[in-house]
Amino acid sequence: MGIPLRALTTLPLTLTLKPQRSCTNNAKIHHFQLTKTPFANKNALISCKHKNQSNRWSLDGMTALVTGGTRGIGHAIVEELAGLGAKVYTCARNEAELNKCLVGWKDEGFAVMGSVCDVSNRVDRAKLIGNVSDAFDGSLNILVNNVGTNIRKPVAEITSEDFSTLMATNFESVFHVSQLAYPLLKASKAGSIVFTSSVSGFVSLKSMSVQGATKGAINQLTKNLACEWAKDNIRSNAVAPWYIKTSMVEQVLDNKEYMEEVLSCTPLGRLGDPTEVSSLVAFLCLPASSYITGQIICVDGGMTISGFYPRND
């Protein structure tokens, strides 16, 4: 049925809407056609098509490396990226745990490979990137620097060994892996790095001064790489979670009093789920986010912006 356009034009035309449906993502493509009426002197044709943009929301054909992909947030990231079509390579220190995950992912139809690696070890890091290069023919679209650890102690009790462990695992490893992966990311002509930071890189947390310092360093590295490697079409972003339900925090949150403190300063009043972090990581890797770089985004239920806003539930 024609829709009169006399209010928009002096030409006595009608607008015919013919919706079609894409076969790939069920998104409607509308064809708008202005046709001649009995009173028009000329034919007029105007068409506007919303092209199928499903590739903006897909990782089909892309390759990814996710460090520490067998547990918690890393595990969720592997499944998120693989579910969007990426071929994923991951690593872990525990071989039995890694093999179990690889079998499970294969059963689910995910394209995931992996090898044993301790990212705090320089030799292991070089071997890892060599394996990734071989697996993906010298090209890599996505690098997720996910591995991290924590040693909860007051500053006065931190030993030199504690300090070295935190710096090597949390910061030196991601710096070096990024260096090693740079030629692969550049070769892809569309690279994306995502770091797993923490809210401890923004605010003070109990007994987490050194861990927070490593995350603050990651935040600054994120910004520097975004500028330095932009010429190579490599984007760099970070996600900064608050308490997420993973095995790493289970023991700490078994303390009911501490758990209440955590929830009291979290506006949403709950812990996060690993998939609530992995979804953001995936978005930052998608073509749809191609103009986003140098950003550190908190996934924290509002914790870092709550200020003095006590919950009175």
UniProtKB/TrEMBL annotation:
Molecular function (GO) terms for this protein are:
oxidoreductase activity, acting on the CH-OH group of donors, NAD or NADP as acceptor
Keyword list (alphabetical) reads: NADP, Oxidoreductase
Q: Does the keyword NADP apply?
A: yes
Domain of life of the organism encoding this protein: Eukaryota
Under the heading Pfam families, the entry gives: adh_short_C2
Q: What is this protein called?
A: Uncharacterized protein
Tell me the organism.
Answer: Daucus carota subsp. sativus (Carrot)
